[in-house]
Amino acid sequence: MSTRLAKQGRLIDRSKQVTFTFNGTTMRGFEGDTLASALLANDQMMMGRSFKYHRPRGVVASGAEEPNALVGLGEGARFEPNQRATTTELFDGLKAASQNHWPNLDFDIGAVNTYLSRFLPAGFYYKMFIHPAPFWKHVYEPIIRRSAGLGKAPDRELVDADTYEHFHVHTDVLVIGGGVAGLQAAKVAASSGARVLLIEQTAHWGGRAPVDGGTIDGLSPDEWVSRTLAELEAMDNVTLRARTMGAGVYDHGYALGYERVADHTPGVPGPRHRLWRIRAKQIVSATGAIERPLSFAGNDVPGVMLAGAMRDYVVNWGVTPGQRVVVATNNDDAYRTAIILKQAGVDVLRILDARKEGGGALADEARGLGIRVDPGKAIAKVKGGKRVKKISICNQDGVGGAREEVEADAVAMSGGWSPVVHMWSHCGGKLIWDRANAHFRPDPDRPPLGADGKGFVVAAGSANGPLALDQVMADADAAGKAAAKAAGFAAKRTKAPEGAAMAENAMEAVWLMPANAEVQLRMKSWLDFQNDVKVSDVQLAAREGYESVEHTKRYTTLGMATDQGKLSNINGLAILADALNADIPQVGTTTFRPPYTPISMGAIGGEARGEVFQPVRKTPIYDWSNANGADWEPVGQWRRPFAYVRPGESVHDAVNREVKNTRENLGLLDASTLGKLIVKGPDAGKFLDMLYTNMMSTLKPGKCRYGLMCSENGFLIDDGVVARIDEDTFLCHTTTGGAERIHGHMEEWLQTEWWDWKVYVANVTEQYAQIAVVGPKARKVLEKLNAKAGGGMDLSAEALPFMEWRDGRIGEFDARAYRISFSGELSYEIAVPASQGLAFWEALVDAGKEFGVMPYGTETLHILRAEKGFIMIGDETDGTVIPQDLGLGWAISKKKDDYLGKRAQERSHMADRDRWKLVGLETVDGSVLPDGAYAVGEGVNANGQRNMIGRVTSTYYSANLGRGIAMGLIQHGPDRMGEIVEFPGTDGKTYKAKIVDPVFYDKEGAKQNV
Amino acid sequence: MSKPVSALMGAAYDGIVRVEECGLQGMITLRGDLASKPVAAAATGATGQDMPGQRRANVAGQSGLCWMSPDELLVLVPHAEVGDKLAAMTKALGNAHSLAVDVSDARAMFRVSGANAREVMAKLAPVDFAPGAFGPGDFRRSRLAQVAGAFWMEEDGSFRIICFRSVADYVFKLLKVAAQPGSAVGVF
Amino acid sequence: MLILHCPYCGVDADETELAAGGEAHLKRFGPGSSDDELHGYLFTRENPKGVHLERWRHASGCGKWFHAARCTATLEVFGTYKAQVSGPPQEIRDAISAKRPGWSWREFS
Description:
The complex is a heterotrimer.
Chain A lengths: L2 E2 L8 E10 L2 E7 L3 H7 L4 E4 L6 E3 L11 E4 L6 E5 L10 E4 L13 H4 L8 H5 L4 H15 L16 E13 L3 H12 L4 E4 L9 H4 L2 E2 L4 H13 L4 E4 L2 E7 L3 E7 L12 E13 L3 E3 L12 E3 H11 L1 E2 L3 E6 L3 H11 L3 E7 L7 H8 L4 E3 L1 E7 L6 E6 L8 E4 L2 E5 L2 E3 L2 H4 L5 E4 L4 E4 L14 E3 L9 H18 L12 E2 L18 H4 L3 E3 L4 E2 H9 L5 H8 L12 H12 L3 H4 L13 H5 L16 H6 L2 E6 L2 E7 L6 H14 L1 E5 L4 E6 L3 H8 L12 E7 L5 E11 L2 E6 L4 H14 L7 E4 L4 E7 L3 H12 L15 E6 L2 E6 L8 E7 L3 H12 L4 E3 L2 H10 L34 H4 L10 E8 L10 E7 L5 E13 L4 E9 L8 E5 L5 E7 L14
Parallel strand pairs in A: 2-8, 9-10, 9-15, 10-12, 15-29, 17-25, 19-20, 19-25, 20-21, 35-45
Antiparallel strand pairs in A: 1-18, 2-3, 4-5, 6-7, 6-8, 11-30, 13-14, 14-15, 16-26, 22-23, 23-24, 27-28, 31-32, 33-34, 35-41, 36-39, 36-40, 37-38, 38-39, 41-44, 42-43, 43-44, 46-49, 46-51, 47-48, 48-49, 50-51
Chain B lengths: L11 E3 L3 E4 L4 E6 L5 H11 L9 E4 L2 E7 L2 E6 L4 H12 L5 E4 L4 E7 L3 H8 L14 E6 L2 E7 L5 E6 L3 H11 L10
Antiparallel strand pairs in B: 1-2, 2-8, 3-6, 3-7, 4-5, 5-6, 8-11, 9-10, 10-11
Helix pairs in contact in B: 1-2
Chain C lengths: L2 E3 L6 E3 L4 E5 L11 H8 L8 E7 L7 E7 L5 E6 L7 H10 L10
């Protein structure tokens, strides 16, 4: 059984007991425990089931690389699946539940898959579910989806109770990893004066060294870590951050740090996670090394663990995973585990050393403690279901015969150590194969390159290859100095600390145990624990022709689990290389991609959730509209009232009411969102002549002109009314969505093409609240305001004719009034400073009561303009429409040599007589045409579909006309007036509409010219 | 005349910093050759402040000059004086090719003050806010999460932020999230 | 996530402050140009693996357009320069030559 030891446990505080539950059972641990160590202390070795075969799985590691011990944490609005028990700090009240089983962890129906495993080899899904094709959608996919996936998704009805944030930070040197290498690198880099940020993914500093022993400068690793930490904390130019993982390294020294601020203190005010968006001149990757499992039959049985992890549980948390332990290894390091277990009073039955020559000084020490050491031996098979029961032992160089069995309850395995090269590799750092240690390590000659073309990542300590403490400290010291220098600082010439550890014999690569294991053993030798990929699967992939490691990964799912192959990668590709008869470096590794371990979606989103998920732009009238029934419509980031709905009314009712009232009485539209750009300078007229298809330079001050803008490709991009303010100054109105875009468009041409033209542009869109006062009684309400408060602006038809503007006072407001109309009614668009916009609006509402004033929304705006045949950018245009298509030839100057888009509009296709042209459409029965419906003509196209001859671009119910009206682009449309065209709807009906003039209402324009 | 109001009418929030909307602030966009005499005369005359260097703000109270780009200044004057100041500037600019325009109401202004002000800013803008990198009088145009913003640091270590009026509510809510209790980073 | 130096406001700008603007130094062809010239101007673009000249705008910053000389394969930046030129200035060409001897891009080398 696994249990708490009486002594040891450098990270736990035995005076502080913590209560938690696992699958509803109450358990106890100590402050400082991880969930994994606490579960082990409660003899809960089995922590989950595997993905494919639902095999019982126990914890195999002690840190971020853990593939098995994934649990659902918390509940309700704080539930989160797939959390690693090994990286979950225990806290009082923690609730955890195991995953991937039904009905429960001990008895699981899905485990039947393990008996079917020989029918479920690599690529099974690809091979099986191809035929018959219709089965995929209706049979296979639903079944697979139900059984696939790890953990449970959080309840969709609940909103995450926590908050998250980003934090931008710049540093000269970022050190990722707070082990002894990271601490040393940070210290020497900081002593150069460089700003240093040191981040560590766990809650503790020092990494493995305090567990693994040895001395640094004569001190124990723990003492050295404390001393160095104190030194770093005393330096102003150093920032230390625990619980912050280096998640990814990106171009130009960008790195992400994932801080788990409050995972261990849920409910405490403040963000749960913080994503550090780091810009570093140099990055030191001091991420240590990860131990590799050995591939033997039954290496996934709960109780089989990495030797280093088992050592961690004893030393860090005072927990032993078993009472009778067998150690299997190909290197000296695992002897440390045997020694520590033995010293803790645990029975170490055997050390099976795959090497014929066995170990060095550590082996001697183990023997001295009375531990039996068997060189050249291997595990043939681990027996047991939910727990290790028996170990059968064989020779490493055989097929697994001539076995001897011992009863044991835990196995510590070590296949050697692989540097964590993720931070080196994320941004393109290359690796070399280190034959002596059988691992890939960073190639110092091919680092990831920064903006200056030089390397910006330096690997330090065991992340760089060295595993022995003396080499680690020297390497880290050099890395810190190199990083400081590359960041532009001169590191002090200090001596590297001296690490001392026991000498070790060379390791020996062991990819399969025993070396020539027969197929029955290989079929139970796991490579990827979470995804259930076995040695035999990779060999099958190789036999089936998968030569690329990337293809094999996807075919077998090796390394595709949430641990992303941290344990399985090297073993898997070694098996593949062997099967392909190739060298390991030839086969290569799969690509290392960020994040290092999964990070929360909340952290990625940061503050952008709830009310600030995205910006909502509001006009000064927003609150008034909100309080007066506005049914909001997003227009870009703006919110505009679609209609002002009164109690008891439907939105449709409201629109019909607003449409009629505006034509008959008085309507108010909040038009503040329309873009307003000031264009000023001696060359302003020349500039606008290039931007608009019309001639703007001839416009007289005081007057307005409607203009069209095209891209260089000839297509319409925006429209609006231009007012000439004075000789040098124009005010250009843009569409609501166009203000920033057209401002940018103007700046682009001024800065990058006509930089010698004297023109300045300013965006004054939001300086003004602009209100359209529309309808037969528009003048009356304004004159009433003037009469009441002494405004002096003469708003008569003579003083302010159509398409002119004036500055002055209306009522008590400084205003600019434009006699322009997008409705065909008598209309004034009046701009007042935004700070007085609401007051002006309220004054109009108040004064307008006697005239039947009603505010109206965007839908009424649309209907009114459609009744008049006015186009709308985005409805009649879609990026492929030129002004000539819309009957707007009158707005294209024939006198100008040039304007943006002119040359493109001369292309043969643009001048083609067959282009679809704007017409009005009237349904035969008065109904409303479906929006976007296509008109069909004679014959079929190459695909057998009806030929299309046009489409609906705008379609509305007109309450004024009592029928549906529409505009559309129809081939030869203007030449086909009176013809009936068919529009098949998606509802199966075919709509018939007559081609008519697009102006449906007041064709003479009498109403706007009063 | 009707009483003008700012976007959020002085809304305030106290978290790990104090966030307050500053109310009405006169602002004039001045574009022109910043090295030319008329432009400098118009700018300094309106504010009593020296011409700012690149990415600097010379501000005292409600009057000041902020460097927006090589050909643009933001001229801060009291809101009630914008009309007179603009007229005086236009006069000073004479025939020099330039543009001076009132943008007071197109913007909102916030103050972020308190010991954690740098950190709150660093949560929202991709800018180095470390004491050695950003100090009093330093001015930046950048983004605040998803919208454009400009800000500078004052002598007392507080920040003033300018954003568009339409997103004043968004920026205020952003600042509230960034300033929520328990969210001090402890770096600056 | 690039960092590009804005030659106007002097900021080493984070990519999130910038907007990419495509290929640099296009020559505009307007009325009077041939179909081929217009086609080249509107649609034909370089797609090099290596030295590239491109346009960027410091959109969430000072608002100015500038040029960047950059390696598309390694993302090394040889230099940034102002927009008001029709080709890379000599110091930029020299900077590229120092790192990528024998480079050429359109008519420039």
